[in-house]
């Protein structure tokens, strides 16, 4: 059913609390990775991707904090999120947004595969015509 305004506000606050908590955890882990890098250790591919994602999230947090700090600016946040969907750090994404992103990536990969398949078929026809 429909949630009350109070319940939606509480859910939103929990969402942002969990997002900040995850970002803090990611930042601590990234700091350890940077420490290891500075001491000559090599990161795995997964660690490197996590470090890059965390750094990007920290840079995205700066404009996000402007909306939190400036009074009444949080009312414009949904407008800016529609204009710039990648503005929020990844720890603040909802499950539906993650699924939507994955679907878009999958569709793009499928279109690319279809294009490559058609190109290879076309090249095979040309080669067959040239040799035949």
From TrEMBL:
InterPro entries for the chain: LETM1-like_RBD, LETM1/MDM38-like
Coiled coil region boundaries: none
Keyword Membrane recorded: yes
Domain Letm1 RBD intervals: 43-128
GO BP terms: intracellular monoatomic cation homeostasis
Subcellular location: Mitochondrion inner membrane
Gene Ontology MF terms: ribosome binding
Name of the protein in question: LETM1 protein
Organism: Tichodroma muraria
């Amino acid at each position: 059913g429909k949630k009350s305004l109070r319940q939606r506000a509480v859910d939103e606050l929990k969402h942002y609390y969990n997002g900040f908590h995850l970002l803090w955890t990611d930042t601590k882990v990234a700091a350890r990775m940077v420490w290891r890098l500075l001491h000559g250790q090599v990161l795995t591919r997964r660690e490197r991707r996590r470090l890059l994602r965390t750094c990007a999230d920290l840079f995205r947090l700066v404009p996000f904090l402007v909306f939190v700090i400036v009074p009444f600016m949080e009312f414009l946040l949904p407008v800016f999120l529609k204009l710039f969907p990648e503005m929020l750090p990844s720890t603040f994404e909802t499950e539906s947004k993650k699924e939507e992103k994955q679907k878009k990536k999958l569709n793009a990969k499928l279109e690319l595969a279809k294009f490559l398949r058609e190109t290879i078929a076309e090249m095979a026809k040309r080669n067959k015509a040239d040799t035949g």
